[in-house]
Design a protein that fits this description.
By secondary structure, this protein is of the alpha+beta class. The protein is built from two helices and three strands, in the order E-H-E-E-H. It has a three-stranded antiparallel beta sheet with strand order 1-3-2.
Length: 74
């Protein structure tokens, strides 16, 4: 299991939630949060290290892109 922390200063909760939904087919994902970050515990459904790295990297990029797509936060 790999834990990814998405700090609230940089990522929107909506974007992180949409990311978890989008990647549900390729990884089991559990969400938790605290005051400063949303954490996704990710267990890719694939076992080859290269596939795991790719899934994690794409998941992080997707969350960032979704946050950017939302526009400036106020």
């Amino acid at each position: 299991m790999i834990e990814l922390r998405f700090h609230r200063d940089l990522y929107s909760a909506k974007a992180v939630d949409e990311t978890a939904e989008a990647f549900a087919a390729v990884a089991a994902i559990e969400r938790s949060e605290d005051e400063s970050a949303i954490t996704l515990a990710v267990e890719p459904r694939y076992t080859k290290p290269a596939q795991v790295r790719r899934i994690i990297g794409e998941l992080q990029n997707y969350a960032l892109a979704k946050t950017i797509d939302e526009g400036p936060r106020r």
